[in-house]
Design goal:
This protein is an alpha+beta fold. Helix content is 26%, strand content 29%. Strands 1-2-3-4-5-7-6 form a seven-stranded mixed β-sheet, sandwiched between helices. Strand 4, helix 2 and strand 5 form a beta-alpha-beta unit. The two termini are 25 Å apart. Belongs to the acetyltransferase family. GNAT subfamily. InterPro entries: Acyl_CoA_acyltransferase, GNAT_dom. Keywords: Acyltransferase, Repressor, Toxin-antitoxin system, Transferase. GO terms for molecular function: acyltransferase activity, transferring groups other than amino-acyl groups.
Length: 155
C-alpha cells in the first residue's frame, strides 16, 4: 500500500472516519476544519494513494507553551503539541499509529530548525498510552499524562 500524509483538505471524508473514540471522531468531523482555518491546530491525514479521500488516520499539531520546570530552560518553554492522533478502526493493528507519530515528530524536528521549538508534547489519555509513547522516547512530566521529548533527541 502506498501511503500519503498531507494536510486535511475538503475532499477528505471526515464523516466516514471512526477510530472507536467519540471525542477523537467528533473533533475530526466537526472541529478540525475550523481549527485549520483559524490556525489553532493543523490536521495531517494518512491516506492510501489509491483512495485518497478515505482518512486512515490523522494527527494534529499546534504551538504551545510548556509550563514545567526543566533545568536549563526558562519558565515558559516553546513546544509543539501533538494534540490528537487516531487510526480508523478498519486500519488499527497495522502500525499506522507509529507511522503517524514518526511523521509528526519528523515534522516537528524540521520546524524546529526555523522556529523556537524545544520539545514535542503529547497528552496520553491513560497509563497504557503513556507507556506506549515512552517507547518512542517521550518522558513523563509532573503534569499527569503529559509527556515530552526533547527535539534534539528526535532521530
Amino acid at each position: 500500500m502506498n501511503f500519503d500524509i498531507s494536510p486535511l483538505a475538503t475532499y477528505h471524508d471526515r464523516q466516514g472516519f471512526d477510530c472507536g473514540n467519540d471525542d477523537i471522531n467528533r473533533y475530526l468531523r466537526t472541529m478540525a476544519n475550523q481549527h485549520n482555518k483559524k490556525n489553532i491546530a493543523k490536521t495531517h491525514v494518512l491516506t492510501n494513494l489509491d483512495n485518497p479521500n478515505i482518512i486512515m488516520g490523522f494527527y494534529t499539531l499546534s504551538a504551545v507553551e510548556l509550563d514545567v520546570a526543566i533545568k536549563g530552560y526558562p519558565a515558559k518553554i516553546p513546544a509543539m503539541m501533538i494534540g490528537r492522533l487516531g487510526v480508523d478502526n478498519h486500519y488499527q493493528g497495522q502500525g499506522l499509529s507509529k507511522l503517524l507519530l514518526a511523521n509528526a515528530l519528523s515534522k516537528i524536528k524540521r520546524l524546529s530548525q526555523d522556529a523556537g521549538i524545544a520539545f514535542a508534547v503529547i497528552d496520553a489519555k491513560n497509563d497504557t498510552l503513556a507507556h506506549y509513547y515512552q517507547k518512542f522516547g517521550f518522558r513523563p512530566t509532573e503534569l499527569g499524562h503529559r509527556l515530552i521529548i526533547d527535539v534534539n533527541g528526535i532521530g
